[in-house]
Design goal:
Blueprint: H1 11-35, H2 40-52, E1 57-58, H3 59-66, H4 70-82, E2 86-91, E3 94-102, H5 104-125, H6 130-155
Antiparallel strand pairs: 1-3, 2-3
Helix pairs in contact: 2-3, 2-4, 3-4
Length: 163
């Protein structure tokens, strides 16, 4: 809805609201992963496989997106494959590498578990104007980039984690 008045907020209130959102989503992700017979890291990695679509990821691609080691991603892929979520396919350009494909039945299971949540989010987004959605999308994109920078700092053993 264009021109819907929004209550004023300070940066501290926005940060607090974001912390509450992250906490609620972390708990929600744990519950959804449990319902799907996965752990959160495996579910997150499966999400990256889904996002890639027809551009199948390599194990290295997946490790980079999830900010985990290639050794750890091997364990993730083993668990996802055993649970029936992914298959590994030879890379047509390099037979030494494999690419990861989602199993269609698993995609349907995940979509069914997330359907209600995504419907509620879609309804929430529909209450915002096109301009507001652009701002929200910009904020999510920039905040995600900052989160990735923080992860890189943490993985680089920066004790402050803020470089």
């Amino acid at each position: 809805m264009d021109g819907t008045p929004r209550p004023p907020a300070t940066p501290a209130q926005a940060l607090s609201a974001m912390d509450h959102l992250i906490a609620a989503h972390l708990i929600g992700q744990q519950e959804l992963a449990r319902r799907l017979g996965l752990n959160v890291t495996d579910l997150t990695c499966f999400g990256f496989v889904l996002e890639a679509g027809e551009e199948l990821l390599t194990a290295g691609d997946l490790a980079a997106r999830a900010h985990i080691t290639t050794g750890a991603v091997t364990g993730v892929l083993n668990r996802l494959e055993r649970a029936g979520y992914v298959t590994r396919r030879p890379d047509p350009a390099d037979r030494r590498r494999v690419r990861v494909a989602a199993v269609p039945a698993a995609v349907s299971r995940v979509e069914a578990v997330y359907a209600g949540h995504y419907q509620r989010l879609s309804a929430l987004f529909s209450a915002y104007s096109t301009e507001e959605l652009a701002t929200i999308t910009d904020w999510f994109t920039r905040a995600t980039a900052l989160a990735h920078q923080s992860l890189e700092a943490i993985h680089g053993n920066d004790p402050r984690g803020d470089r």
